[in-house]
Every structure is written in C-alpha cells, then in structure tokens.
C-alpha cells in the first residue's frame, strides 16, 4: 500500500521547539490533528534513550495506523521494528540499509539536487525529502536553499518516476499552499510537506496539524489553471479585449498601491482617468512610526475586492516587511498581487529585497523591464539555463522565452515591458507593439502599468493574461492617440493629452462603444 506522505511530521527534541513537553504527547496531539506519517529525528540523545523514546512513539503511531520512520539510525529502527528510516546524504548508504532492513521497510532519502534525486530513485528509494525549501532556524546546517523554483526543477526532471516526494524546510500555515502550488511541474506535484517547528513548537499541535490538513486539501486561493492556447490565440484574445475594458469600467476596481513617491501623482491621475479606485501607500524615506504599520493595514484593505501593487521604486529599510504583510493578507484572500521590482538589480539591498519578496509570497503578475525581469529570474536560488550570463540585451525570441520561463516557474503572469512588451502566462506568449516613445520620456508611465494591471486583474479573474493584455492595450492605444494630436510637441504636452485619451477610452467603453479599439491593436 502506498504511504500517505501528505502531512509528514518530523520530530525535534531540542528545548526551543519541544518547550519541556513530552514528545509522545505532542506527537499524539499531531496525530489527532491528521498527521499521516511520523519521522523520529533526534541528533543528540544516547542510543539507549533513542530506543526508549522510539518504542514509546511507535506505540502511539500504531494506534493511529500511521507509519513511524527513524532518522538516520537503522539500528534503532531495527531494534523497535519501525516501519522504516529516513536517510540523509551523509547517513548510511541506501544499499546497505536496504540489506539490513526488512523487505517492506520504507526508505526515504534527503535530496537537494537533481543528481541526488536521480541517484535515490535509481537506488529504489520510496520517497524523496526535497529541500531545503526555505531557510529555517530548525536546521541551520542545510546544504542549499532551493525554494519552489528548485523543487519544481527537480520534480520536472523526475516526472517519469512514481517516487514519492515531500518538501521540507520553513514550511508553515501561511506558505504551505503556495509551496504546493508553485513547486508543481506540469507532470509531477509534491505528495506532501514535511513539518517540524510549525507543528512541534505550536502551542496546540493538534490544531496546527488540523489547519495544515485543511490547507493541503484545498486549492490555494490564488490558484488558477493556465489556459491552453487556442488555434488562433492572439486573434481570439484581441477579439475579447474591448469587452474586458467595458467590464473594467463597470466594476471600477480598487487597487491598493504601495508605490514610490516619485510617480505617485502621475499614477493617481491615470487611475482617475480610467475610474480606478486608488489607495496610495507611499514609502517615505526615513523611519516614520505612522507610516510603518501600513503593511498591517492591508488586512483591512484587502477585504475590498481589489488588487495590491507592490512597487519598490523608493525602497526603505521598512519596506520589505510592510510589503510582506500586505502580500500575505492579499494572498490569503486570493486577491491579485502585482510586483513591480523597480531597479531590481541596481543595489545589493534591492537584490535582497527581490529575493525575500519572491520567496515570501505569491505574485499574480510580475511586471518589469528587461533588466528587472532578468534579475527576478536570476534571484532564484537555482540558476537555470544561464539567462544571467547571457548577452546584455536579449533579442525578441530570448525575451519571449524569458517571460515564458519565469511565468512557468512561478505559475503566474509575467510582463516584460519595452518598445515591444512580452506578456506570458507560461503557456502563451504575446508580443505587444503598441505604445509611443513619449511613454519612455515621462516618469511613472511604467509604474502606472502596474496599477492598470491590478485594475484589470480585479475586473477579470478567469484569464489573467487576457486581463493584463486588455489593460496594456487600452493604455498604449491611449498613448498613440495622444501622441498623434497636433498640439502634442513633446513629453510635457503629451501627459495631459494622454490622460485625456485614457479618459476618452473609458468614456467610450462605458457607453459600449468599441470604436477606439477597432483596427488599432
Ligand atoms: N531537514 P522546520 S530542513 C529536518 O533541508 C530538516 O533536509 C531539512 O524544520 C532539509 O519545518 C529541516 O521547522 C528542518 O522549518 C525543517
Ligand atoms: Mg540526516
């Protein structure tokens, strides 16, 4: 019978985690809450104590019909008749353990690279413990932090194998659904998650396990199935754009902008032109006690059915934790979150911010210029296919591929802006040629696309790529219309004309008039 790996408890007996409680009591509570497999992991105790505790644990797990595995110590597993062992890369070799243990014993192997995973599969491992997912204080000597991107790359490469898989490291209630969703490769998903502190150190291990079981068995609030391309995908999408713009005007969505102060005024004017309801949270430089709790405010703001835009243009020391609070609140509700990693590669601090944000939350859309998108791609702990070391300017095909690969990796939508914009949901890639060079000469025009996208993602949830495409087309066609006005002589006169044209399209769409679009895209 296959082992149920879905909620895999790994024990820890260190005082900081066990907090003076009896391990067997904690494990029994976790079992009541729905843990499906238990690994006894104790790196410190003497052999005699290990065997005593393992024996007591086994009595408990047997009552719940759940297998007990022993970390590292094949001798302890044999001594108490445990159902199996879990072996790290530096523990006993697989073939030796296999020979010593009963035929039907479960053997799991820790793997953090594709080579290790393939070797464990070839050896005949029952399951792989894949990690480290996120850096964790529970185990500080981990070999490498691979995140969902690294896990997805391993799953994708071993998708022909039926081997079981669990992710481990830093998994908790607020990230477990994203871990399962973003790690998934087209043909292989994780079978479960392995948890230490979020259950063992919890005040109520039973309630914690119950909560995990509930989260694991329901889809992530932001989960969406990507749409398979149709025969004439680009045409089919274009055909739908005017109705999506009409829908947006009807809904007039709310977008919560955590945005930089340079562009706030312009973005606010764009929002007004198209009737978007706008909330601005400006990052001020310097610590301000009144501004600092703004991340917490998101808990209330996300109750309105709107989107969140994280624009890190004027990053401060407090920004990242505020962003993270806000992203968490919106992710929990499944409301759209847009990330504009402004200046992502510019400084060490920004590169770290990108890394922290990317590993800490789900973004429905990542929007940036080529350099920013390249940085986001390369910030993954796993360097893949060397985009980083590629030429400094990518050609069209490479840009399309980068947008698609990044979207596929994060299971979201990516918009790479430029003279040609590349938009992808991991399956479809759309190149948009609209727009005008003046857009590049006015500050805030790129940032406003983040807001516009939030607006359209809120109005149209079922196809995120179509939603974002509709927004950019409305925006860039308005820019073309504005630039063609006789009185527009440069970026200065362009701005008011651009706002007028956005307003004109919104007004037309509100009356059901699609003529602004016909023949323009
Ligand atoms: N093994 P927590 S990470 C036991 O990467 C263990 O192989 C890891 O603890 C690995 O759930 C880890 O408290 C600790 O973060 C995971
Ligand atoms: Mg080990």
UniProtKB/TrEMBL annotation:
The keyword Transmembrane does not apply. InterPro entries: Aldolase_TIM, Hyethyz_kinase, Ribokinase-like, ThiamineP_synth_sf, ThiamineP_synth_TenI, TMP_synthase. The keyword Magnesium applies. Gene3D superfamilies: 3.40.1190.20, Aldolase class I. GO terms for molecular function: ATP binding; hydroxyethylthiazole kinase activity; magnesium ion binding; thiamine-phosphate diphosphorylase activity. Pathway: Cofactor biosynthesis; thiamine diphosphate biosynthesis; thiamine phosphate from 4-amino-2-methyl-5-diphosphomethylpyrimidine and 4-methyl-5-(2-phosphoethyl)-thiazole: step 1/1; Cofactor biosynthesis; thiamine diphosphate biosynthesis; 4-methyl-5-(2-phosphoethyl)-thiazole from 5-(2-hydroxyethyl)-4-methylthiazole: step 1/1. Condenses 4-methyl-5-(beta-hydroxyethyl)thiazole monophosphate (THZ-P) and 2-methyl-4-amino-5-hydroxymethyl pyrimidine pyrophosphate (HMP-PP) to form thiamine monophosphate (TMP). The lineage of its organism: Eukaryota, Fungi, Dikarya, Ascomycota, Pezizomycotina. Pfam families: HK, TMP-TENI. Residues 7-199 form the Thiamine phosphate synthase/TenI domain. This is Thiamine phosphate synthase/TenI domain-containing protein. Keywords: ATP-binding, Kinase, Magnesium, Metal-binding, Nucleotide-binding, Thiamine biosynthesis, Transferase. In the C-terminal section; belongs to the Thz kinase family. GO terms for biological process: thiamine biosynthetic process. One of its GO terms (cellular component) is cytoplasm. It catalyses: 4-methyl-5-(2-phosphooxyethyl)-thiazole + 4-amino-2-methyl-5-(diphosphooxymethyl)pyrimidine + H(+) = thiamine phosphate + diphosphate; 2-(2-carboxy-4-methylthiazol-5-yl)ethyl phosphate + 4-amino-2-methyl-5-(diphosphooxymethyl)pyrimidine + 2 H(+) = thiamine phosphate + CO2 + diphosphate; 5-(2-hydroxyethyl)-4-methylthiazole + ATP = 4-methyl-5-(2-phosphooxyethyl)-thiazole + ADP + H(+); 2-[(2R,5Z)-2-carboxy-4-methylthiazol-5(2H)-ylidene]ethyl phosphate + 4-amino-2-methyl-5-(diphosphooxymethyl)pyrimidine + 2 H(+) = thiamine phosphate + CO2 + diphosphate. Its cofactor is Mg(2+).
């Amino acid at each position: 019978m296959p082992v149920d790996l879905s909620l895999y408890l790994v024990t820890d007996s260190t005082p900081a985690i066990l907090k003076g409680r009896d391990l067997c009591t904690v494990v029994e509570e976790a079992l009541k809450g729905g843990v499906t497999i238990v690994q006894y992991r104790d790196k410190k105790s003497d052999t005699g104590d290990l065997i005593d505790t393992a024996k007591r644990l086994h009595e408990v797990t047997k009552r719940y019909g759940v297998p007990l595995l022993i970390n590292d110590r094949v001798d302890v597993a044999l001594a108490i008749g445990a159902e199996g062992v879990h072996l790290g890369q530096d523990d006993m070799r697989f073939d030796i353990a296999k020979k010593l243990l009963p035929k039907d014993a479960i053997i799991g192997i820790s793997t953090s690279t594709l080579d290790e995973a393939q070797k464990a599969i070839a050896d005949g491992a029952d399951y792989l413990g894949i990690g480290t997912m996120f850096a964790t204080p529970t185990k500080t000597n981990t070999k490498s932090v691979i995140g969902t991107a690294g896990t997805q790359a391993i799953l994708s490469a071993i998708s022909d194998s039926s081997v079981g898989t669990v992710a481990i490291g830093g998994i908790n209630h607020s990230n477990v659904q994203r871990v399962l969703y973003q790690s998934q490769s087209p043909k292989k998903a994780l079978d479960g998650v392995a948890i230490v502190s979020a259950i063992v150190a919890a005040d109520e291990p039973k309630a914690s396990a119950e909560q995990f079981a509930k989260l694991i068995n329901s889809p992530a609030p932001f989960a969406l199935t990507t749409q398979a391309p149709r025969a004439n995908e680009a045409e089919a999408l274009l055909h739908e754009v005017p109705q999506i713009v009409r829908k947006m005007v009807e809904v007039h969505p709310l977008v919560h902008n955590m945005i930089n102060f340079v562009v706030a005024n312009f973005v606010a004017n764009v929002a007004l032109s198209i009737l978007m309801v706008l909330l601005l949270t400006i990052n001020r430089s310097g610590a301000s006690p009144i501004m600092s709790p703004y991340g917490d405010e998101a808990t209330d703001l996300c109750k309105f059915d709107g989107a969140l835009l994280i624009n890190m243009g004027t990053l401060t020391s407090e920004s990242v934790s505020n962003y993270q609070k806000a992203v968490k609140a919106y992710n929990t509700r499944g409301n759209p979150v847009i990330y504009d990693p402004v200046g992502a590669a510019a400084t060490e601090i920004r590169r770290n911010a990108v890394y922290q944000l990317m590993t800490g939350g789900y973004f429905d859309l990542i929007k940036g210029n080529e350099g920013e998108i390249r940085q986001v791609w390369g910030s993954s702990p796993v360097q893949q296919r060397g985009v980083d070391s590629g030429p400094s300017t990518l050609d069209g095909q490479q840009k399309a591929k980068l947008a698609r690969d990044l979207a596929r990796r994060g299971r979201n939508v990516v918009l790479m802006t430029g003279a040609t914009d590349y938009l992808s949901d991991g399956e479809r890639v759309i190149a948009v040629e609209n727009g005008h060079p003046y857009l590049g000469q006015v500050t805030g025009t790129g940032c406003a696309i983040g807001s516009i996208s939030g607006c359209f993602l809120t109005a149209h949830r079922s196809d995120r790529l179509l939603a974002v495409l509709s927004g950019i087309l409305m925006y860039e066609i308005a820019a073309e219309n504005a630039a063609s006005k006789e009185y527009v002589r440069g970026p200065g006169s362009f701005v008011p004309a651009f706002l007028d044209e956005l307003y004109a399209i919104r007004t037309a769409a509100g009356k059901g008039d699609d003529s602004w679009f016909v023949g323009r895209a």
